[in-house]
């Protein structure tokens, strides 16, 4: 149904774009409009050695109606750069760990002009990467304990397994007056398993970007901001929320959605095991295998399972929603898809219930900690990755991708 769908979808898309102008602005179009405005503005003159710091546009949203439920959403216009610099003028932000998030958040903080230092294991992969990114040993790059000692705000961006492993040596350094920051609720929420029992006399806050650290960085460089969750685990100063919002903006967030540590970690672990990766991979495999068992060629099975989904339909669903997608496809596709979606929902819902339960009870955390703290966890992952790479579906996919117009 590919070509039919796309042609109709595109036609309908431009129709919709024209009618959207006449409609009152919804929360969704406000977000989009704001981002477009941000992207189209020129960068301000203020710059650092690395990049021209992008303009921060003004937006005034606070409480947004999400399908009838009102939620607080902070946005960065309340925190222009001058205010951030003033707010954090006496702070040293000690960013511990320089993986995906450390890299993105650290460089954004530095480009925003804040006093940020990095703490990682000397001569590890992250140490070398930090030097390549311009962090200087002894100046703003230190070993973990030294960085924590120098910091007033300790941003724990080690991998989740490493946060648990290193906690006995880190905890005594988080002294009264410091702030402890996470980008995932994992360690404190599952403290019975991780043993990350936070000190009772410090603010404990969370800013969790809804995307990889690379995206945190690339959106910042484009003058846009990533959506992030913020949450407070412990507020001893009465300023924890304010600090979380300010830090969220400083690391490169555009909109900050208020949640709790528990909800952040439950939804995150659930989502990545479900529709974001695990569930969708399972569905791809099941559909592909049945097509192959019924005599379809690898290319046909792949095109009808993955290629059309990722290249045509999913981006349109992302842009316009599922209701729009149904309307944009043929009546044949629409009839069958609506009928079968309830069958899939009914059979999958118990699996999702089991998954949520497994997350909430800590079973997923235990599995993750046990697996990812093994000495040979990288080698074990590599073996699993090779098995996935070797699956016919992904080998067929490689050939299909090579035939995309942009690759010729
Ligand atoms: N990645 C994402 O997309 C994402 C998105 C939102 C939130 N988060 C959260 O952000 C936090 C950081 O995640 P990440 O993905 O950026 O982490 P990551 O890429 O896995 O970072 C690993 C860092 O931990 C260090 N590390 C690993 N084992 C260590 C040990 N035993 N002792 C000392 N350091 C150790 C590594 O240093 P070496 O190089 O020296 O090994 C590296 O700097 C996590 O809480 C995660 O859940 C991640």
From TrEMBL:
Substrate binds at residue 330. Its EC number is 1.1.1.86. It catalyses: (2R,3R)-2,3-dihydroxy-3-methylpentanoate + NADP(+) = (S)-2-ethyl-2-hydroxy-3-oxobutanoate + NADPH + H(+); (2R)-2,3-dihydroxy-3-methylbutanoate + NADP(+) = (2S)-2-acetolactate + NADPH + H(+). One of its GO terms (biological process) is isoleucine biosynthetic process. Binds 2 magnesium ions per subunit. Its cofactor is Mg(2+). Residues 260-407 form the KARI C-terminal knotted domain. This is Ketol-acid reductoisomerase, mitochondrial. The gene is ILV5.
């Amino acid at each position: 149904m590919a070509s039919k769908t796309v042609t109709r979808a595109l036609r309908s898309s431009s129709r919709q774009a024209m009618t959207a102008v006449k409609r009152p602005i919804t929360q969704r179009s406000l977000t989009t409009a704001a981002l477009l405005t941000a992207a189209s503005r020129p960068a301000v003159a203020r710059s650092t050695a690395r990049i021209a710091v992008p303009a921060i546009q003004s937006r005034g949203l606070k409480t947004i109606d999400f399908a009838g439920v009102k939620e607080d959403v902070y946005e960065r216009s309340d925190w222009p750069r001058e205010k951030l610099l003033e707010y954090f003028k006496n702070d040293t932000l000690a960013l511990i760990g320089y993986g995906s998030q450390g890299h993105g958040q650290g460089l954004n903080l530095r480009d925003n002009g804040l006093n940020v230092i990095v703490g990682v294991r000397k001569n590890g992969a992250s140490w070398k990467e930090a030097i390549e990114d311009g962090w200087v040993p002894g100046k703003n790059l230190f070993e973990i304990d030294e960085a924590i000692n120098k910091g007033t705000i300790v941003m724990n961006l080690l991998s989740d397994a490493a946060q648990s492993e290193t906690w006995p040596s880190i905890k005594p350094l988080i002294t009264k007056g410091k702030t402890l920051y996470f980008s995932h609720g994992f360690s404190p929420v599952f403290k019975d398993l991780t043993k990350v029992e936070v000190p009772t006399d410090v603010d404990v806050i969370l800013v969790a970007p809804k995307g990889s650290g690379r995206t945190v960085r690339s959106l910042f460089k484009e003058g846009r901001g990533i959506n992030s969750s913020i949450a407070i685990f412990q507020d001893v100063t009465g300023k924890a929320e304010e600090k979380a919002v300010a830090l969220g903006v400083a690391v490169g967030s555009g909109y900050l959605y208020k949640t709790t540590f528990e909800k952040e970690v439950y939804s995150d672990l659930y989502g990545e095991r479900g529709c974001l990766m695990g569930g969708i991979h399972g569905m791809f495999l099941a559909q592909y295998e049945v097509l192959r068992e019924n005599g379809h060629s690898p290319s046909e099975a792949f095109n009808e399972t993955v290629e059309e989904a990722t290249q045509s339909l999913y981006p349109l669903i992302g842009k316009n929603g599922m209701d729009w997608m149904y309307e944009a496809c043929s009546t044949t596709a629409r009839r069958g898809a609506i009928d079968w979606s309830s069958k899939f929902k009914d059979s999958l819902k118990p699996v999702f219930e089991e998954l949520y339960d497994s997350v909430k009870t800590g079973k997923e955390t235990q599995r993750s900690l046990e697996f990812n703290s093994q000495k040979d966890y990288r080698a074990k992952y590599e073996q699993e990755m090779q098995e996935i790479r070797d699956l016919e579906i992904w080998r067929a996919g490689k050939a299909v991708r090579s035939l995309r117009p942009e690759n010729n």
